[in-house]
Amino acid sequence: MNNLNDLMGPLQSWTFWLRLRRAWTWGLRGLTLGAGLALLMGGTLLWNARLLRAEFLVLTGGMLLLGTSIAALTAALWPVSVSWAARHFDGVFGLGERVSTALELSQSKTDYPANLVALQRADAIRMAQNVNPRGRMPLKLPRLETLVTLILLAALALTWFRGGQWFAASQQTRNVQQAVKEETQNIEELIAQIEQNNSLTEEQKQSLTEPLQQAVQELNQNPSLENSVAVLTNSGEKLQSLSDAQTQQMQQGLQNAGQKLAEQNGSPLQSVGQQLAQGDIVSAASELKNIDVSKLSQAEQGQLADQLNQMAQSLGASDPQLSQQLQQAAQALQSGDQAAAQQALQNAAQALAQSGQQAAYSQTAQQAAAQLGQGASQVVAAGGSQQGNSQQAGTQPGQGQGQTPGQGQGQGQTPGQGQGQGSSGSGSGDGQASPGGEAGTSPIPQNAPSDGGQTTYEPIYAPSLLGGQGGPNVNLPGSGDNSGDVIGQGPTTPGNPGASLVPYNEVYSQYDQINQQAMQNTSIPFQFITIIQSYFNLIRP
Questions:
Q1: Are 309 and 269 in contact (CB under 8 A)?
Q2: CA distance 59 to 220
Q3: How many Å apart are CA 479 and CA 482, to the nearest integer?
Q4: Model pTM?
Q5: Which of the four pLDDT bands, split at 50, 70 and 90, describes residue 389?
Q6: What single string gives the DSSP state of each residue in 96-113?
Q7: What is the pLDDT of residues 410-443, one digit of tens each?
Q8: What is the DSSP letter of 402?
Q9: Spatial CB neighbours of 21, under 8 Å, sequence gap ≥ 6
Q10: Are the CB atoms for 149 and 28 separated by under 8 Å?
Q11: Across the chain, which distance is largest between two alpha carbons, in Å?
Q12: Which residue of 123, 235, 341, 458 has the smallest Cβ count within 10 Å?
């Protein structure tokens, strides 16, 4: 009974139970902390439309598991000294410091009477072995902490089951980001193709790739729907401005001329015509440059002169400079001056090469602009254009369908039976207008039931002539005074014109913020986002 191990056994059992109870308590607190962090992080990400339903579940489960495990393991593994455990053991179970005194006497270097030490230790062992830690200190759930934990878990469950709109907005944002990422990769591939195009000069490559590189940078910085559509649209407009309609006309003229030359088998310009017919103007210029006039027979020189004249005439309107060079070469051949003819052919080949570079530049700019426009459409579609389309159609009282006011066309409409169509604002009606009688002079009844100030919608339209010009006018009969004066309206004086009292740059940000909020709330049809965003970019101070 005096063995110290007999005292350490109950104390170690108590220490293990103490660690378990502490892990239980702090594990619950970790669960509460994890639920709070999951709700805070999940709510923030959902507010910014960056969290999907599955990701919310993973986030919630991860935070709960992480918070609980870290807190419980930390509490369980936290060091506990033997002396502190003995004092705490004595205090909890009312042992009157028996266990702690026995440990101190066993560790003390002072010589105490052996019989007293043995009796004290035996008493401490006897009292310690009669203690049941599990019965005296059961695992409990604190009410306040449990209530807070249940509230947080209920909030997470409510977010999971009732947050469908938030998760849908997050999915929409994720689709837009994926579409923007794919479009960014397409633009980078387009930049690489332009840089490898040997038909373009370095200056032309730089002017084409500069707006594309800027678009990639802006898309990476802000891949939102509104910004991405605006960036792609503006970059496409910049590239479209680099395309020249006259250059396209010149390219078409060269292709037509090449088809005619390619049909003349065995002629000096047959290979040049074949290259032009295929659209390879630069290779055609190289073929023209390689023609050696001195190796041609007299008949071939005459045929070459005729072909050059025909080609010059067909290009007179689309490429005057090249046409002039071709005519000079033809005239030199006709006069028999081979040296001048050879030099004129060299000049014509150089002019043709420049035309080919300009055509390739214009064509590349046009193709790049078309690709960016298609990319903007794909981004809009990824953002949910079908949802925006559902907001376009709206009905108005009186069996009318309308979108936006526009030009009115009517055929004897009566209010409540017309149909108006949006952008064009055209309308047609089934009702026939009939002249009304003179306005009555009876007083308005005072006891008549009131309609509460609500009346049916009556469309207002501009009268038009039936059957076009010369048709009969549809007018209401006159009433009141025949003098021509407007009853109930006195003379008015137009106000004096004046300057705006609010600076333009102070109100722009307010209206732009309202526009951005409307786009984020899908209040604006998605096919109009590009137009509206371009407008705000144009008027930006």
A1: no
A2: 26
A3: 8
A4: 0.52
A5: very low
A6: TTHHHHHHHHHH--S---
A7: 333 333 333 333 333 443 444 343 444 444 444 4
A8: E
A9: 137, 139
A10: yes
A11: 144
A12: 458
Give the tens place of pLDDT for each residue, 458-491: 444 444 444 444 545 545 555 545 555 544 444 5
Q: What is the mean pLDDT of residues 230-254?
A: 83
The CA distance from 109 to 89, in Å, is: 24
Across the strands, what pairs with 420?
A: 427
Token couple for 74: 């930390």
Distances (CA, A) of 519 to 213, 229, 349, 383, 525: 26, 12, 54, 11, 8
Rg (CA), the chain: 45
Tokens coding 294: 């001195």
- 246: number of Cβ within 10 Å: 12
Q: 472: which residues sit within 8 A by CB, 6+ positions away?
A: 465, 466
Q: Which of 331, 455, 483, 316 is nearest to 398 (CA)?
A: 455
- AA identity, residue 467: G
In terms of residues, how long is the chain? 541
Our CA dihedral for 87, 93, 98, 100, rounded to 10 degrees, sits at -20
Task: Determine the distance from the C-alpha atom of residue 121 to the mean position of all C-alpha atoms in its chain, rounded to a whole number.
Answer: 78
